[in-house]
Structure formats: C-alpha cells, structure tokens
Amino acid sequence: MKNPFNTLFGRLATMTVGLIVAVHLISLTLVDRERGQIDAEHARRDVLLAVQAKHDGEAAARHVAQTLGMEYIAEADVGRSGCPNGCVGSDAPFEHDLLPRMPPDSRVVFDPHTGSLWIRYGNEPYWLFMRNANLPGMRFVGSSLVMLVLAVCAALFAAWQFQRPLHRLADAAREFRIGKRVPPVHESGPAEMRSLIGDFNQMMRELAQAEQERAVMLAGVAHDLRAPITRMQVRADLLPDAANRSGFLRDAESLSRIVTQFLDYARDTADPSPHANVDAHCRRHYGDGLDDEALVRLHLNAGEGFNLPLVDLDRILSNLIENAMNYGEPPVEISTSAANGVYTLTVRDHGVGIPRDQLERALQPFTRLDPARGGDAHCGLGLAIVRRLTRYNGGQFECGNAPDGGFCVTLTFGVGS
After folding, report:
1. Which CATH class is domain 273-413?
2. Number of H helices, E strands in the chain
3. CA dist 226 to 67, 140, 232, 261, 352, Å?
4. What SS3 class is residue 73?
5. Pick the CATH number of 191-265 from 2.30.110, 2.30.29, 1.10.1060, 1.10.287
6. Other C-beta atoms within 10 Å of 248: how many?
7. Residue ranges, CATH 3.30.450, the chain
8. Cα–Cα dist 402/349, whole Å
9. To 10 degrees, the CA torsion angle through 280, 284, 290, 295?
C-alpha cells in the first residue's frame, strides 16, 4: 500500500499543517500570557483606587465601587459570595501575576470559569469582588478552533493545488514511458513548474516526431523489400536443382518474416480488425494441449469476456510461441485467467531463461542476446513487438524467469481491452 506521507502532497500537507498548529498554539500561549500580565496590572490599579476610596469614606467608596463595577464584601460574608476553593486560591496564572504586586498577607482568588476575582488587600478587614476581571481562556477556544480549522483547510487546498501540475506531469511521463500517446500537459503552477512542463511537452513532441520518422522509414524499407522478395520466391521455383530451390525458398521466407516484423513494429496503433475470443483462438490454433508430449499446453480459464483484435492477438501469440520454441525448451504453456475484471495471458517455456541482468536489454528493439538468443530470420523485434502491441491495446507487459525455470511473459488487460 502506498504511503500517503511519502508523496509531495502528503509532505506539503504535513509540513504546513504542523507549522500552522505550532504557530497557533505558541501564539495563543504568548498572547494569553501577555494579556494576563496586562489584566493583572489593571486589576492592581483598580484595587489601589478602591482601597484609597475606602479610606476616604463610605461615599467615596460607593462611588468608586459603582464606577469600577466592584463590591466590598465583609470577611465574614466572603464565603457566601461564591468565592471558590474556600477563598484559599489556586495559584492560577492570573493569580500568580497579580499577587506579587500586592502587599504582604494579601490574598487573590480567581474563578477561571467566570473570570471573577476576589482580593484581600493586605490586612484590610474586607474583600474586593470584581466581576469579569479577566476573560477565561476557554472563551477563546471556540473561535481559535474555527480559525485553526480554516487555516488548515486553506493549507491543504494550497498544497493540493501546488502538487497538481507536478502530478499531471508525472502521470504523463509514466504514460509516455510505456509507449502511450499522451496529450500535452497543461502548463500551470509557479514559473519554474510551467517552464518544466513546457520543456517536457517539447521533448515529447520531438521524441514522437523522431519515432514517427523512424517508423515511416522502417515501413518504407519493408514495403520496398516485398516486391524483390516475391520475385526471388518465383524465380526460386524455376530452379531445376531441388536443393538450391529449397535453400532459396527458405531464405526468401526468412526475409519475408523479417519484413513482416518490421511492419508490425512500425505500426503505431492497435489493429482495427474484429475482436476474437482469446481462449477460442488458442484452442483453434494451438490444440487442446492435453497430451503430456504436446509442444504447447493450454490452461484457458478467462472465459468469453477476454477478447482482443484478431490480427494483434495472432501476432502476439505467434511471436511469443516462436520465441519460446527457438530459444527455450518445450512444452510451451499458454495460460489465461480472469479476476475482478482483469484478464491475464501468460506464455511460458521451460528453457534456461534469460540472465537477470539481460532482461531489460532483451526487450529493446533490434537486440539479440548472443549466443543463446541468436538465430536465423530474426532481428531482435519479437518481444518489442509484443510489448508494443500489448500497450496499444491498453494492456501491461511483464516478463521474467519462472521460479522453477523457463522464461515467462505475462500480459494483463483491463475490462475495456
């Protein structure tokens, strides 16, 4: 399973969300700390004013208390006023900021739920009660969470938008690498990203043009060779010597097969021929494979849903079986299967296989692995043709050595194949 944190979007999202959360928490802590100190200083000044007014007389005390929203509570009644913790105090941050600024024997009790404050100034025989002296931090949690969620959503959206052009570029590069035609990638994103996408589109156009020119040249040469090969076959039939006639015919047939391979490789689209059922085609042309001595054994379980263009199917099977017969050992096993809408065609021989370090090279066109992969009438296009035809029909090509020996090619097709 793909690790979501090992993608560009996953890493961008993790980094930005982590930074936003960290900055939000740090700012809340610093702001709350600074606000507590400022509120503590304001409360100290209000207390000094209230205490001075009390010393100036009851009239002045009532006027100041009314103005500041404060109450004078006798020490005997402070418990009934709702003072929490038995008016002992809890050493809360606000209390911790305010108490050092008061004279000895002062007491400060803060209710974090209501923001109310009870203060006994020194040895005064009364308490001062202040409502909403400091807004509880919990009152900001809701709005802070909303801001945090909005910031995280914005960061995720920005990270998603940032990685989209690169994701499209990666998909196009992957499709182009396996031989599929892809439209030019839309240029978007930052300037560097647009420049990269533009260069990639130009590279695709130049490579596609070079491939097309090579295919046209290869097809032209192959077509031009058809006529002289046919004349060679006709003239070979006129030779009186049977041995020479047979040799000329074999050489002409070898040249004809090479020309056919050139034409197959030069074609750049799937064949428009009618579709044929893969299982039925294999049974018709390669027998039932029930005999232990049969060169080709069939294990066909794909059913009626596995269909491919008739010409492409015949060329795929003929190239794979010819490759297995020439370079591997019989029996050659042809297997088909279907699972969850995915169809699989496997062709395997029982030879020595291909060295692991030569597998990728064996798939390159015009490559022959000597001496095990050499031979007459072959130009190193068999596997390359099969891979190309498979991709043109929307399939995937895989090859390798079987665990118990032999070379194995597996072709996988989706529902629409």
Report:
1. alpha beta
2. 10, 11
3. 111, 86, 10, 12, 36
4. strand
5. 1.10.287
6. 18
7. 4-140
8. 9
9. -120
Residue pair 312/392 in contact (Cβ under 8 Å)? The answer is yes
- The predicted model gives 137-152 an average pLDDT of 74
Least confident of 302-316, 321-335, 356-370: 356-370
Sheet strands side by side (includes 107-110): 70-74, 126-130, 117-120, 107-110
Instruction: Give the chain's length.
Output: 417
First-last CA distance in the chain: 26
CB 12 within 8 A of CB 162: yes
* pLDDT score, position 335: 92
Query: Quick one: which of 119, 146, 157 has its CA closest to 17?
Result: 157
Full-model pTM: 0.51
Residue 180 main-chain phi, psi, to 5 deg: -90, 150
Residue whose pair of structure tokens reads 């109450």 in the numeric block: 71
47 close to 198: Cβ distance less than 8 angstroms: no
Residue 347: pLDDT band with limits 50, 70, 90: very high
